[in-house]
Amino acid sequence: MTEKPLITFGKVRKSYGEGEARVDALAGVDLTIQRGEFVAIMGPSGSGKSTAMNIIGCLDTPTAGRYGFMGVDAGRLDRNRRAVLRNLYIGFVFQGYNLLPRTTAVENVELPLIYRGVPHGERRRLAIEALEQVGLAGRQNHTPAELSGGQQQRVAIARAIVTTPMLLVADEPTGNLDTARSHEIMELMTRLNNDLGLTIVMVTHEPDIAAYAKRTIGFLDGHIASDEMNREAA
């Protein structure tokens, strides 16, 4: 029996404004992403890529059409049910690491587990394991100010994966990093995709970063303009 796709867009439209002022950020997009894929989304400003990412991450809903996540019509869920879905199944990594500045690395990673009501001892163990997975063993008691930018992004990735999500949504994850640290982060994300089977959807404007993904989708004027497999990706 064929496994259902993790993500499906069926004629997804997202509009802002009304009448002559209406703008279609997404203009009837069809899209399928299977479990275990690593997908890069690219496109110029205003192309619809960020709108698509927000819908995929259940941060926004379509104006029309269907967004399916794990077979559920997630676009029709109310705000509270979408929040539950995000908490259970989706991890997020952003360009700005969004770490609490006066909180240690391990305490930052524990935050999603606190929201789930995981007991202290168990969440501490899981957070330390997640930090080890991203190459930060022994750094759990460092605050963000004591870590480099690349290390801070690793903490953010550990926080995103500590709940063992089905999907990791990454928005310009290397945007604040130099070239060397950017490639280190992308090698880490590639390993998480390959070793854990973690589905990753990443927005980026950099072709060399997109090349780490196994598939690149290009948006233009609210439509998918290209959808290609990357030969260079591992």
Automatic annotation (TrEMBL):
It comes from the Bacteria. One of its GO terms (cellular component) is plasma membrane. CDD domains: ABC_MJ0796_LolCDE_FtsE. Pfam families: ABC_tran (PF00005). GO terms for molecular function: ATP binding; ATP hydrolysis activity; transmembrane transporter activity. The keyword Membrane applies. Residues 7-234 form the ABC transporter domain. Belongs to the ABC transporter superfamily. Macrolide exporter (TC 3.A.1.122) family. InterPro entries: AAA+_ATPase, ABC_transporter-like_ATP-bd, ABC_transporter-like_CS, ABC_transpr_LolD-like, MacB-like_ATP-bd, P-loop_NTPase. Keywords: ATP-binding, Cell inner membrane, Cell membrane, Membrane, Nucleotide-binding, Translocase, Transport. This is Putative ABC transport system ATP-binding protein. PANTHER family: ABC TRANSPORTER ABCH.1, IMPORT ATP-BINDING PROTEIN. It comes from Pseudaminobacter salicylatoxidans.
